[in-house]
Here is the input.
Amino acid sequence: MTGTSAGVSVGGKTVDLPTRSGTIGPDVIDIGTLYKNTGTFTYDPGFTSTASCESKITYIDGDEGVLLHRGYPIEQLAEHGDFLEACYLLLYGELPTKTQKDDFDYRVTHHTMVHEQMSRFFTGFRRDAHPMAVMCGCVGALSAFYHDSTDITDPHQRMVASLRMIAKMPTIAAMAYKYHIGQPFVYPKNDLDYASNFLRMCFAVPCEEYVANPVLARAMDRIFILHADHEQNASTSTVRLAGSSGANPFACIAAGIACLWGPAHGGANEAALNMLAEIGSVDRIPEYVARAKDKNDPFRLMGFGHRVYKNYDPRARIMQKTTHEVLNELGIKDDPMLEVAMELERIALTDEYFIEKKLYPNIDFYSGITLKALGFPTTMFTVLFALARTVGWIAQWNEMIEDPEQRIGRPRQLYIGEPKRDYVPVSKR
Ligand code: SDX
Here is the structure.
């Protein structure tokens, strides 16, 4: 529809607004001149019908349950590639050649250490601090260490900061976990792949050698791929909005981590596992399904529903397969929470309420079971989501900086407060 227009009549005025078409997906109406020409704003508090930008990175077809990264289906990337290949694709737009991949792996690997003084940041937190609080603080503090990559107008500095974020997030996440459990930090090793390095930094102790189980490392790597990017979700939009003011990339990623923490977003994996534990057994599922349907009960089935997917989240299918692989590798035959999860899914997918509202399991429904089986406490689940999503945030941040149409984000409002009134002295109130 690019080149056509949409006629809008408001307040007795009719204006023609230009429309644009993308490669695939819904067209957009460019409302940039609406207020100037009609004195009227649009209103869309949850951004359910609002595009904030043009993007080439990720595309979701919610009705078909399709997720593409630079055009490649998530199923194929998760099946055939590794996380750093997905990172290269998200950042540069094309799958790397062997030489490009080896060079990228080398550069990321050789940026995995953090400044030694970073370790002092952790000691300021209580041991029982939620690791996501630690991540917000420590990632935001990175800008205090890496002044040489905070000039956002310099493409080279932007790419250095991007690589530093991708490389250092596993190290910081592992340090947050080790501090939480009172064990010494473990340094990264350059002869390990990304996921194995992370598992070793989390689970190795100085007293004995640790070698990551290759099946579990592959599962961890695939979980990172599944969480890498997802269009303009709440935390990515937060990163873009923070970046639109010119804030440095480390501060923008810290803002994204803070937003992801919410249980309606990335915090849902922790909330979903806690929900499965609370349900406890298959016979208690009907009680919780009834609560989820009760408009007067704030309870929701965590790990179900999605703003965009009105079909099965393709990531959830791959996640479910990975869950079974991990449980089989660990010899966990009858995980009660998996049993509850699969029965809850079966019931929900046949229940009229969930069918009518198109509520399907999302990526967070099965990830918690897998991460728990891998040995992570529930408080670390969203940290792992943030670790993986960092590449998506940083790719979207770079795209926003390079977009000539992007300006500081500054929404307007519908004011419903008091009209102008005069001050009343306290003696007359
Ligand atoms: C992620 O945006 C992304 O891309 C996010 C993400 C990513 O990769 O970045 O995919 C990651 O955040 C996945 C979602 C994780 N969150 C949860 O699992 C929490 C539980 N889900 C809900 O909170 C909810 O489904 C949301 C937040 C995910 C979506 O909220 P919406 O789009 O605002 O939908 P809604 O709240 O308006 O729900 C529509 C209807 C409502 O009923 P009505 O008011 O129309 O009668 O469906 C109901 C809701 O009550 N509903 C649920 C439900 N989710 C929605 N009812 C019971 N259980 C649920 N889980």
